[in-house]
Design brief:
Blueprint (H helix, E strand, L loop, with lengths): L5 E12 L2 E6 L12 E8 L2 E11 L9 E6 L5 H9 L5 E4 L15 E7 L4 H12 L6 E8 L8 H10 L3 E7 L9 E2 L2 H8 L6 E7 L1 H14 L7 E5 L2
Parallel strand pairs: 7-8, 7-11, 8-9, 9-10, 11-12
Antiparallel strand pairs: 1-2, 1-6, 2-5, 3-4
């Protein structure tokens, strides 16, 4: 395995939701990236720290922010899951590669951007939104649809609500696929929300991040049912 391009320090590791950790790392000198890109971490085996394997995670912080932000979803027995839950702590040193990926956008004036994320797939979408909205790179309308199973799985809602308060061109739409009876917000999978949001398919660009199944279903909906141009539908899947 190639040596890491950077060594960074963990500044924060907290549990955001029942199976999602938020990680904050120092941004190394000379490191640059575009919103929507990802990096490979050198993840050690908990029982043998010399055994390193790469794992890819989307950068959730905007390029203009001071530190690097990530979320890691726990998977039973997963190498990275055990590492983040049992080993990674404030002060830990992490090997990291250069930024990779093409899940990026060039902000344009006007039009409509729709961002759809399920679970930890919201990470690169946060990077896009903070960069575009707080740094005013476009005046286009922007909507974020964030889908999870139940209320406990939601995170960063305060941040997204604050972005909506500060920027009149942004709306936040959390939706639950398996809500309890006391939930009064949107219900259903993310695909069910889109027809009411996308009124001008030709002028809408959509960015999807989540499971391969969600991407396949949503792309089909956008292209075949809503008649969006294929070039306007962008997806980043994770396993």
């Amino acid at each position: 395995m190639s040596p890491p391009a950077y060594f960074v320090t963990c500044k924060k590791n907290v549990l955001l939701a029942p199976d999602v950790y938020e990680i904050v790392l120092t941004k190394p000198e000379g490191f640059s990236y575009k919103a929507g890109q990802f990096v490979l971490f050198d993840v050690p085996l908990v029982d043998n720290p010399a055994d390193l394997q790469p794992r890819a995670y989307s950068i959730a912080s905007a390029p203009e922010e001071k530190d690097l932000l990530f979320v890691i979803k726990l998977k039973p027995g997963g190498r990275a899951s055990r590492w983040v839950a049992e080993v990674l702590a404030e002060g830990s040193i992490v090997g990291m590669g250069r930024a990779l990926g093409l899940f990026t956008l060039t902000p344009e004036s006007g039009g409509h951007y729709v961002f759809v994320g399920t679970g930890s797939g919201v990470a690169p979408l946060r990077s896009h939104l903070v960069s575009c909205l707080d740094h005013r790179t476009t005046d286009a309308r922007m909507d974020l649809v964030f889908g999870v199973r139940n209320r406990e799985d939601l995170f960063w809602t305060d941040q997204f609500n604050e972005l909506a308060r500060k920027h009149s061109n942004f709306r936040f739409h959390p939706t639950l696929s398996a809500p309890r009876s006391d939930w009064t917000g949107l219900k259903g999978r993310v695909q069910a929300i889109l027809p009411d949001l996308i009124k001008d398919p030709a002028q809408t660009k959509i960015f999807l991040c989540g499971s391969p199944a969600m991407l396949a279903d949503t792309k089909k909906l956008c292209i075949e049912t809503l008649q969006m141009p294929k070039a306007n539908v962008h997806g980043e899947g994770y396993i």
